[in-house]
Amino acid sequence: MVTILKIKGFEEFVSFTDSIDPNGPIVLFYFTGSKMENGKSWCPDCEEAEPIVKTFLTELKKNVTFVFVDVGEREYWKEKTCPFRTDSRTRLMVIPTIIKWKGVQRLEGSQCNNRDLLQMLFEDDDD
């Protein structure tokens, strides 16, 4: 059903995207701030969204790959030149953000906390 993966940093993200099977299951990326020593993200919005997203994924009955992407430390993320912000495949403005790979659909910020919007993001793919 749902395959959950975790990757860290832009280089791992690029490496992973290069290996995506175009005929495989849909791939969604969840971009989040890195975890601190206490196990919580430095990004409070990410901390708020993560349990909602994880619960939703446990209930999902679809064949998808869901990838948690650690964008790094706060200082790195805040840089205008952060590749997650500047790369044409991501163009992140805020975190958390969920992107459907090779699609235009995305959820940004507090939208990631909304179960109805999560449902719509996954339903759009029914072929």
UniProtKB/TrEMBL annotation:
Keyword Hydrolase: no
Keywords: Cytoplasm, Disulfide bond, Metal-binding, Redox-active center, Zinc
Domain PARP-type: 31-108
Record bears the keyword Cytoplasm: yes
Gene Ontology CC terms: cytosol
InterPro entries named among the record's database cross-references: Thioredoxin-like_sf, TXNDC17-like, TXNDC17_dom, Znf_PARP
Protein name: Thioredoxin domain-containing protein 17
Subcellular location: Cytoplasm
PROSITE patterns recorded: ZF_PARP_2 (PS50064)
The organism of origin for this protein: Leptosia nina
Alphabetized Pfam families for the sequence: TXD17-like_Trx (PF06110)
GO molecular function, one term: zinc ion binding
